[in-house]
Amino acid sequence: MRKILISLLVVCAVGAAAFAASTAFFSDTETSTGNILQAGALDLKIDNTCYYNGQACVLTETNEGEGYFWGGIVKDGNECSCTWRAKDLAAGDVFFDLRDLKPGDWEEDTISLDVDNDAWVCADIKTTANDDSSSTEPELEDGDVEEDPTNDFDGELADELFFWFWYDDGDNVFEEHEVNGVINRGLAKEVLGDAQWAIADSQTGQGPITGGKTVYIGKFFCYGDITPDPVPDNEGVDPTDDSGFDCDGTEVNNVSQTDLLMGDIVFEATQARHQEEFLCNPIKPTE
Ligand SMILES: [Ca+2]
Ligand SMILES: [Ca+2]
Ligand SMILES: [Ca+2]
Ligand SMILES: [Ca+2]
């Protein structure tokens, strides 16, 4: 009986093999390999170009290689550092580093902001010192009091430096078509202080900064009074020719001699996608 059963199993196995060999199925295969989900980048890069009293800080060839010099004139003491190519800012990258200001001095510099993805951008400006620094005789004769070394905010320079910030088109010149694009203007003590500025947020009207596009912020200060005198459209060259402002230091007296203004400027970019209502200065809920 056991032998018969084995024979039947063999017959069945042979039958199954014969069936498989004589039958086919339609089939199709689609393959997707290497699927990727990767986070995008949001990397803000900043460059700066500056002009001091009509001289440009420019990259210049030297015997040792390259360096930045006022007016491109290579000599000791004529180095400058406020022009640089687009990069991530690091320690020592400062927009202002001027230590011998005189009434009537002015500086123009244009900041370029580049993001690689659509972004809202805010600027956070904080004055860290407005110090008397030391007291000169003319300073005291003009009514200042002796420098207080324990007080970093006893100076008068923030009362004398007038600033003007605008959306520039990249030529570093304040032009007629830019008079409606003023971001801020006023004395340093009024506009710097501790401020959060909306360069591009949901209320500034131009939408986010587009990835790959450069946004320029023109910045001008005068040690004295500024009178805007915008250059006609398409006639802007650069501030060695005409900045679009007149700077008048005749009303400045001696109380700000040796005074020192220090501050930090932080640019912050945040993704625009999924943040359509983003504000640099969010409205605080009322309690
Ligand atoms: Ca002083
Ligand atoms: Ca002081
Ligand atoms: Ca311009
Ligand atoms: Ca002073």
Unreliable spans: 1-19
Q: Please report the distance between the alpha carbons of the first and last residues.
A: 94 Å
Question: Helix segment count?
Answer: 3
Q: Note the run of SSEs as H and E.
A: HEEEEEEHEEHEEEEE
Structural class: mainly beta
Q: What is the CA-based Rg, rounded?
A: 33 Å
Q: How would you characterize the largest beta sheet?
A: 8 strands, antiparallel
Number of strands: 13
Q: Portion of residues in helices? A: 10-25%
Averaged pLDDT, please? 87
Shape: elongated
Strand content: 25-35%
Bound molecules: calcium ion
What does this structure look like?
The chain has 287 residues and is mainly beta. It has a domain at 95-271. The chain contains 3 helices and 13 strands. Strands 1, 2, 3, 4, 5, 7, 8 and 10 form an 8-stranded antiparallel β-sheet that branches. Strands 9-6-13 form a 3-stranded antiparallel β-sheet, with no helix packed on it. The protein is elongated. The protein starts with a helix and ends in a 16-residue tail after the last strand. The model is unreliable at 1-19 (pLDDT under 50). The chain binds calcium ion (CA) (4 copies). One calcium ion binds at residues 131-132, 147-149, 151-152, 154.
